[in-house]
Amino acid sequence: MKILLIGSTYPLDSSDPQVPWLRESVRQQVLLGHQIEILAPAYRGSKSHFLDSSRVIRFRYAPAIFETLTHGSGAPSKIKSPLMKLLGIPYLISGIIYTLLLCLKTRYDVIHVHWPFPHGIMGLFAKLLNKSKLVSTCHGAELALGQNSYWIQKLLIICLALSDKVTANSSHTASRIQKLVTKPVEIIPYGATIHLPDIYSKPLEDPSVLKLLTCGRHIERKGIPYLLKAMPLILKNSPAILKITGEGNLTESWKQLAMDMGLLNTSVFFEGFVSSEKLAELYNECDIYVHPSIHDSQGDTEGLGVVLVEALAFKRPVVASAVGGIVDVIEHNVSGILIPEKDPEALAEAIQSLVGDRSFARDLGIRGQERALTYFNWENIALNTQKVYV
After folding, report:
1. Structural domains of the chain ordered from first start
2. Closest CA to 114 of 164, 43, 169
3. Can you tell me the mean pLDDT for 161-179?
């Protein structure tokens, strides 16, 4: 089949760490024999290019200096700025024009939109012009936007209602969709994109220093301030270091908080964006992976948490907040420990419980890896996505 995928973010080149799960999803469909083209916005004037044998068409929507609505911390975190909100208008108009031009040249069997607001509007134009089938995939952020805007929610409902198939990355996201439209929602998660090493380090084997890791974009819903506030409680019982990967619009404020607490570059280290190879090293050397996600001020939370799947695949014991799609990944006391959100004391207590019971920590890692390599298996994910297309 010939498929046009429309989304807000796609890697600019092979070294770009953005949305690796989406890139892998495309690669898997190509391996199944489908031809996929990607329509995504330009970032600072970036041009169209090929990646993994698929053509990536970049639509321009502003002078290069202003083309920063997507990428990095992502549009939902950026549109609080009045300038970014204004950019949404040319973004949508340009996206529609590019979609129509593509559909005039090429007959696509399926139009697959990720984040149906605003991309579902582009997809609807393509569906009408090309007589293609429309698949809409929700990740959660678009639903949070709709929750805070009457008109966004109405447009989102229209896009979902007129889609031929609707998919979601987790049961949490699916339940939110079904509050808006009464139609079936297929749940298709995403898997790990970091290659597993041949040899695993053994977690919590009497480490002289407890090594904690957390990964992801530096946006409000990641809840990192609560983990920083838990660090003094952890340090009372164990020498420990926390490594934080990623970047975003809150990086500097988090660094300032760590500095004010006397933790920056002593117990807390900001690693920035790291390569897949470096990330694999960090997963493999950490004793516990921590994911303190929250519901942010816009009502958004973790749609799935692919980094959790990666941590499980590396056999790491996990401590995470019981919010959003995280509960699809982590089963409490089976593949990890779930705690209430926004609770530094609960974070510290859960981490200390793993330090105090190394056998339990190892069992969590073993069971977590089994789940990651079965339910979040890319071959199954690819076949389920292909079934939707068919």
Report:
1. 2-189+377-389 (3.40.50.2000), 210-374 (3.40.50.2000)
2. 169
3. 96
